[in-house]
Design a protein that fits this description.
The chain has about 250 residues and is α+β, with helices and mostly antiparallel strands. It has two domains: about 60 residues, no CATH class; about 120 residues, Rossmann fold (3-Layer(aba) Sandwich). Helix content is about 40%, strand content about 10%. It has nine helices and four strands; from the N terminus they run ααααααββαββαα. Helix 1 packs antiparallel against helix 2. The relative contact order is 0.09. Adenosine-5'-triphosphate binds next to strand 2 and helix 7.
């Protein structure tokens, strides 16, 4: 029963009321012996419960995402990147491990006969090359690598909806980049994935050397997102908006 916090709390109150009913004064001196020591026992249990449930809640917040967010791997506590990040060691991007996947189109796209136009393929090769042979001094500020997003169909019978189809591109430092496309092209979906609102189905994104799959905390400390709608001020210029959102 003591494994369930409400029962511990109930026992604790029971001991207090029993002590009060028999006019027994509870002090630090006798807390270990009141009611055969069960008050002290309850306090120890409640303290252990507090630590356990706080940890459990924090863990669930990391791996189960309700609504928006990018969940961590269930065994993230055993992964080196997590501890490196926590101890402030410089994180190496873990993208290399999946370079094979990042380089090639997803299987279903290959089967569907997707071929990248020449200029698009050249940019993809450039990004892959920057991962294979990193040049820290000349690194793109933002890299989108073979990023793919499929949403499930509206009902289980509907086919999945591909919103972003294996996009690769790099934005250089100090460059102002505009992503253009017709309605429904997938621009917002790309931005949402780059800002960690939800994860890509495959592929990844890098801000500097930080991977959106593993280093969102660090990315958030350097990135500001200025949204598209509603909360922009008519009196402020685009530059001032940028400065404002970057600082948030
Ligand atoms: N949560 C979702 N579930 C299913 N399909 C989605 C979801 N979000 C977006 N889509 C679909 O993905 C495609 C890309 O949408 P997205 O909003 O990224 O386009 P966009 O380029 O930002 O368009 P716009 O110029 O209208 O803002 C669209 O066909 C859209 O219907
Ligand atoms: Mg949009």
């Amino acid at each position: 029963m003591m494994l369930l916090p409400p029962f511990v709390m109930m026992r604790f109150t029971n001991v207090i009321t029993t002590a009060a009913a028999s006019f027994e004064k509870v002090t630090f001196a006798n807390i270990g012996t009141v009611n055969g020591g069960s008050m002290a026992q309850c306090l120890v249990y409640l303290t252990v419960h507090w630590f356990f449930w706080m940890f459990f809640r924090w863990y669930l917040e990391q791996v189960v995402v309700g609504g928006f967010g990018t969940p961590k791997h269930p065994l993230f506590l055993f992964q080196r990147e997590f501890w490196d990040g926590l101890l402030g060691k410089s994180a190496q991007t873990n993208t290399k491990a999946t370079l094979q996947d990042l380089e090639h189109l997803p299987e279903d796209e290959k089967k569907a006969g997707l071929v990248r136009p020449r200029d698009v393929d050249k940019e993809h090769e450039r990004i892959i090359d920057s991962l294979k042979n990193p040049e820290p001094d000349n690194m793109d500020a933002v890299r989108i690598v073979n990023m793919h997003k499929q949403f499930p169909g509206a009902t289980p019978k509907d086919p999945p909806k591909t919103a972003v189809r294996s996009v690769s591109l790099g934005v250089k430092q100090r460059e102002c980049f505009g992503l253009l496309g017709h309605n429904g092209a997938g621009k917002t979906t790309v931005i949402n994935m780059m800002t960690g609102l939800f994860p890509p189905t495959s592929g990844t994104g890098l801000i500097g050397n930080f991977d959106i799959a593993t280093d969102l905390d660090k990315i958030y400390s350097t990135m500001g997102v200025c949204p598209q709608h509603n909360i922009l001020w008519g009196e402020l210029s685009a530059k001032v908006h940028q400065e404002l959102f970057v600082r948030l």
